[in-house]
Design brief:
Blueprint lengths: L1 H5 L13 H6 L9 E2 L2 H11 L6 H7 L3 E2 L1 H17 L2 E5 L5 E5 L9 H10 L3 H13 L7 H10 L9 H10 L3 H11 L4 H11 L15
Antiparallel strand pairs: 1-2, 3-4
Helix pairs in contact: 5-6, 8-11, 10-11
Length: 217
């Protein structure tokens, strides 16, 4: 199965199989479970992947309407193997934060942006990982706006009567709760209120429980 996946990678990566060491070291990130995709999400993702030149693997993953943990782990290993061939060690930690470093500091043939583009962006990997994250935090694909507003009120970051229109404006202009967040991030990023505001904006349904994070390059 790995061979099939690798054959769909862009030129330069297709013959790079994960070594035994890489397979044991990947993934350090633990996906919480398989996710079902709504028809709307599948169709939207299919349209998005049409713009990706080497997205056959990504399209195959969503074809049955489910993204499994095994599929995500396999895609992670494949991307890590491709990055390794280009001279980089790239992986997610247990919190879902991506980090990347050169395997050999003297090797400057491929810069990090080019490596990420070749191994992750053109394959649709970034789309699938974000899709998985969104399906975990919003399994029924509902409009999260009203839930974000109520969450901001519940944690005391916004006043009673706070509306969705006000939230949209605050989010766009970095006012209201986001002005508070920006100030706290400058002075005390680990502050509990800053964390609560971030979680309201990202996971107002409290489905991810801090496990899933969107890719952070």
């Amino acid at each position: 199965m790995i061979i099939c996946v690798l054959s769909l990678l862009p030129a330069g990566c297709a013959d790079q199989s994960p070594t035994e060491t890489q397979q044991k070291s990947q993934p350090v990130y633990a996906y919480p479970g398989d996710v079902r995709l709504s028809v709307a999400r599948i169709n939207e993702t299919k349209r998005a992947l049409d713009d990706y030149p080497n997205a056959d693997r990504a399209k195959a993953i969503i074809a049955d309407g489910t993204i499994t943990v095994d599929e995500m782990n396999e895609f992670d290993r494949t991307m890590a193997a491709c990055l390794s061939k280009l001279g980089y060690d790239g992986q997610y930690d247990a919190n879902g934060t991506f980090s990347m470093k050169r395997l050999n500091e003297s090797d400057g043939t491929t810069d990090s942006t080019q490596a990420l583009d070749e191994c992750q962006t053109v394959t649709g990997y970034d789309v699938i990982r974000t899709l998985y994250s969104n399906a975990v935090r919003n399994p029924d694909d509902v409009d999260l706006g009203p839930y974000v507003v109520q969450c901001m009120i519940d944690i005391g970051a916004a006043p009673q009567g706070y509306t969705l229109d006000e939230y949209v404006m605050d989010s766009r202009n970095r006012t209201g709760p986001y002005a508070t967040l920006d100030a706290l991030q400058d002075t005390d990023p680990s502050n509990s209120q800053a964390q609560q505001i971030r979680e309201c904006g990202y996971d107002p349904l409290h489905k991810a429980d801090g496990i899933i994070g969107a890719p952070k390059w």
